[in-house]
Amino acid sequence: DGITFRIQIHVKELLDTDVLLKLLFHLPVNYPSTLPDISVSSDQLTRAQCMDVRDKLLEQAKKHLSEPMVHDLILWIQEHLKYTIKQSATVCNEKTTLSKGTAMEDGIWMLLLHLDHMRAKAKYVKTVEKWASELRLTGRLMFMGKIILILLQGDRSNIKEYLILQKTCKVDVDSSGKKCKEKMISILCETKVQSQHKRFQTFEVKEHSTLDELQKEFETAGLTSLFSEFVPPLLK
């Protein structure tokens, strides 16, 4: 709930090119007492750079807590994007060096979601595939009868951002055919990928005709216990 809107801004003369920055803000109902959710994307920047920009915006947002802040955040990033990108480049090697330690702490995470339905299935599936690709997430979008599951693996920060997109963007249509947000989604499990779990190499859409087929999908990935705990109850 709350308000979600997109803002596109051009930043001139950055790295010898114009950058089109696409910002997605979700303002919760108790904004500005609560910080907004922010998503950042740009065809001219890498995903890592977009994440750095998002982190910087959230840092600035904390300075404006309890007061309207979106306009100030837009002005700030227009003035500081060039510095943010340069800073991102200078710490790149340091991040690479620390990545192993960070991976040991954060590791690869896994998210299992249950969707109640998809009315505009083709568009919905295309959107999920696009988000997974942009956020470098692997896994499966699985259909079996009326059961719809999304299983994702990737960096925890990217999984968090996927959840923001899933909850704040208009991905489906309502009974009257009007675009709407996903309001009937359940997070069944969010956990760190363990050694016995197989890492998915791609994100694929799978249609299963029987529960046995769906179960084998989980078993192949070393996720038998995950299936047993969360999937059968969906049939009740």
From TrEMBL:
Subcellular location: Cytoplasm; Nucleus
InterPro entries: RWD_dom, RWDD3, UBQ-conjugating_enzyme/RWD
Name of the protein in question: RWD domain-containing protein 3
PANTHER family associated with the record: RWD DOMAIN-CONTAINING PROTEIN 3
Keyword Cytoplasm: yes
Gene3D superfamilies xref list: Ubiquitin Conjugating Enzyme
Key words of the record: Cytoplasm, Nucleus
Gene this chain is encoded by: Rwdd3
PROSITE patterns hit by this protein: RWD (PS50908)
The organism of origin for this protein: Aegotheles bennettii
Keyword Cytoplasm tagged: yes
Any single GO BP term: positive regulation of protein sumoylation
Stored Pfam families: RWD
A GO CC term attached to the entry: nucleus
SUPFAM superfamilies per record: UBC-like
Every RWD domain range: 1-84
SMART domains named in the record: RWD
